[in-house]
Design brief:
7-stranded mixed sheet; Metallo-beta-lactamase, Chain A; alpha/beta
Length: 323
């Protein structure tokens, strides 16, 4: 039976942007400290890599990659992490790594909570994104916050969604003496924003690219996502910092994400065509080529929840019957 309730679908998508499991009793959960570490990935450019896992009480939602760049007059930050507490830890790490330099710009690559819920630690007049990202945070931020509190508990204490106040639409922006190219895409969400540091050629892809971790799909349009990956693949670059997974100098994150999405789309379309229920589709095997991706079984099951109803609508249209 088809699920026709749009409200139910929206709720499932928001839950899918988080995680279904919680691990209790760890030392990190008791201390509520994020052990953030800055890895230099280019000249005066650092990545803070998150775990390749789900949101849970052990990691406090620290599953995302964020970046920061020292420019001549200050620091540029790309994404802010999953909570106010993470944002505070990130700011302390930046001040330790680049002492004495002010934050000049904070970019949000999209509206999923692991990428923007540290915003409130930073001056809101410095936080920038395309209008679509801002609209999505304003529309869904409170519901995401409710879900994150459910998933990671006290790690979220004091966290509230804060949308960027600076609307971006230009192709480039000079910040503190360094130029950044800005790319306006979609597919992972309805508004995905990519930043390239033109000095180093480092591309901050947000969640348009994953590496060694299965992609998440709560707001995905796979065909549009594949087109965005093609666009990123055509850009001049020296390194990609994907939204999740290690830094990537070979473009492997783009190829792996594209291959997984193609398999996912074909598999789910075939399941619908075969008349499988959602529960039956969730049990389909994962090919060897993707079986080693982190959290792949869980993400595949969630992708069935995210994508199956719309696929059924597309591939099994209602037929009017005259009686």
């Amino acid at each position: 039976m088809k699920i026709e309730s749009q409200q139910r679908r929206t709720l499932l998508k928001m839950l899918g942007a988080g995680c279904a499991c919680c691990v209790c009793g760890s030392a990190n959960a008791r201390l509520l400290k994020y052990p953030l570490h800055a890895t230099e990935i280019g000249s005066k450019t650092w990545a803070v890599h998150g775990e390749s896992s789900h949101f849970n009480l052990e990691n406090g939602g620290n599953i995302v990659n964020v970046g920061f760049v020292e420019v001549p007059d200050g620091v540029v930050v790309i994404d802010t992490g999953p909570s106010k507490r993470y944002g505070q830890a990130l700011l302390a790490l930046i001040e330790k790594t680049v002492p004495g330099k002010p934050i000049l710009r904070v970019y949000n690559t999209h509206h999923h909570p692991d990428h923007c819920f540290g915003n409130q630690v930073f001056d809101p007049t410095l936080i920038a994104a395309p209008q679509g990202v801002i609209d999505n945070i304003n529309e869904e931020g409170n519901a995401f916050a409710d879900n994150m509190y459910r998933l990671v508990g006290d790690w979220m204490r004091g966290t509230a969604p804060v949308a960027p106040t600076v609307v971006l639409d230009a192709a480039t922006e000079e910040v503190g003496g360094r130029q950044f190219s800005l790319f306006y895409l979609s597919g992972h969400t309805s508004a995905d924003f990519v930043v390239r540091d033109d000095t180093t050629g480092i591309l901050f892809s947000g969640d348009l690219a994953f590496l060694y971790r299965a992609p998440t799909t709560p707001h995905a349009d796979i065909a549009t996502w594949q087109a965005a990956i093609d666009s990123l693949g055509a850009l001049d670059r020296d390194l990609i910092l994907p939204g999740h997974g290690p830094s990537d100098s070979r473009g492997e994150s783009l190829a792996q994400t594209s291959d997984y999405l193609a398999w996912l789309e074909d598999t789910l379309a075939g399941a619908v065509d075969s008349g499988l229920t959602m529960n039956e589709a969730m049990q389909l095997p994962i090919p060897d080529g993707f079986a080693s991706l982190n959290v792949v079984r869980e993400e595949f099951e969630r992708s069935v929840v995210h994508l199956y109803p719309d696929l059924e609508d597309q591939l099994m249209p209602l037929i009017d019957v005259t009686r």
